[in-house]
Amino acid sequence: MSSVELDERLVRDSYPVAELPLCQLRLMDDTRFPWLILIPRREGVSEVFDLDEEDQRQLWHEASEMGRMLKAMTGADKINVANLGNVVAQLHVHVVARRQADAAWPGPVWGQGEAQPYDLNELANMRDHLLAQLGGLKSRL
C-alpha cells in the first residue's frame, strides 16, 4: 500500500502506532482522553464517500475494531467515533474512549481545556499496550 503525506497538524498532534490494512493508526497527544486516529492511506481523500466501497467497508471495520480494543483496554463508558474534517481536511477518523468522569463529559472533547501531552514514559507504555492489543487483532483486521 502506498504512503500518503499526512497533514502537518496530524503529525504535530499525534504519534504513529501501527500500519493497519487501510489506515495509519496514530495516538493523539492528550493523556486526558485515550484517543486514536485512523488515517486512510489514500491520496486526495477528504470524505468517506471519496473512498471506493471496499475501502469504506475496511475503514469502518478498522474503526470498529479499534473502538472495541480501546474500550476493553480502558474500561471506557462510551467510545466516540467521529469524522469531522473542519480543521484538517485530510480524511481521518477519531476513536475516543470516554468516561463519565473525564474532563469534557458529556460534551465533545474538541476545544475543551488544554491538552495534556504524554511524557516519554507514558507514551512508550501506551504504545506498547496498544501494540500488544493489536497483536491479538491481526487476524481480524
Overview of this protein structure:
There is one protein chain. This protein has 141 residues and is α+β, with helices and mostly antiparallel strands. Helices cover 33% and strands 21% of the residues. It is built from three helices and five strands; from the N terminus they run H-E-E-E-H-E-E-H. A five-stranded antiparallel sheet has the order 1-2-3-5-4. Strand 1 (14-19) and strand 2 form a beta hairpin. Helix 2 crosses helix 3. The model has no long low-confidence stretch (mean pLDDT 94).
> Can you tell me the CATH architecture?
2-Layer Sandwich
Arithmetic mean of pLDDT: 94
How many extended strands?
Answer: 5
Strand order in space, largest sheet? 1-2-3-5-4
Q: Structurally, how many domains make up the residues?
A: 1
Biggest sheet, in brief?
5 strands, antiparallel
Task: Name the overall outline.
Answer: globular
What is the class in the CATH system? Alpha Beta
**Uncertain stretches of 5 or more adjacent residues:** none
**Looking at CATH, which topology would you report?**
HIT family, subunit A
